[in-house]
Amino acid sequence: MTMTDTATTFELPERVTARPRLSQRHPSLYPWAVRVHRARRTWRWLRSDTQWAVRRTAPETPFRVKRHKSILLRQLGATEMWMQHNKVTNLRLAGGLVDGVVIRPGETFSFNKTVGNCTTRRGFVEGMKLSNGEAEAGVGGGICQLANLLVWMFMHSPLTITERSEHSFDPFPDNGRVLPWGVGCSIVYNYVDLVVRNDTAATFVLSVGVGGRFLKGELRADRELPFSYSVHARHEEFLQRAGEVFRRNEIWRDVIDRRTGDTVASELLKKNCALVKYVPQDVPIVIVD
Asked: Which of 146, 130, 157 is closest to 194 using CA atoms?
């Protein structure tokens, strides 16, 4: 890595500078905090008049909106591979619940409402979960890969992402990374969710499957859409402050007129900044105030 001095000032994101939560200062309170968060979300669901997308007989959807696949087994630092093999089991279960979901006009898709709680009673096993940027075993571990695949397809559609929470850490080097860093999604049942709303006149259908090497997904529509989308990262950099390394970038989306091929708009989707949990190699690191 290469160190570069700069006079640039750097403001850490609020989630990094914020005073530790009570459950972080007193870990014994964490299970109770989870119960409170889950109760609040359950109450919101009960009071909501939202029309939720569900699995149902799909209409004919001859138009592909986006297709994507992600590799199932990757060597991620010192992560034990048995957790990744178990992750595949969890992805098969969760993917089977998402496969065939129909999102009609005015409906909302919720990852947590669709997949539900990943418990051993339902067949889920211990897979890789991230906790404070560290890989550890947990029941249902690995389903975030499915959420990552879904949010990437949603970004390439006119569906409105109303809720998405990213990881607060960059835990692993870019070993075989295909998508830009910062487009992933964190899931914790039931209060950390991926939610999208269909504000269009089109009906969308989700297709998900687990093959021999890849998790595969496809989003289709019942009509041709006027625009396509290109999502990419800008202003990618590593910054060092007070001995800690942070990674930041911006995720942008170009909106392309299908008829002319012209880019009609560029949208800033997300600004990312996360604490790096590994030693970056072969990348410049800027020292900031």
From this structure: 146
- For residue range 3-18, list pLDDT tens digits in order: 565 545 566 666 555 5
261 φ/ψ sector (left φ>0, alpha ψ -120 to 50, else beta) = left
Taking the alpha carbons at both ends of the chain, their separation in whole angstroms is 19
Tokens of 260: 């002319």
Distance CA 160, CA 151 (A): 11
Helices 81-98 and 144-155, axial angle in degrees (round to 10): 50
Domain residue ranges in the chain? 50-225
pLDDT per residue over 73-117, tens digit each? Answer: 876 665 678 888 999 999 999 999 999 999 999 999 999 999 999
CB-CB contact of 108 with 197 (8 Å): yes
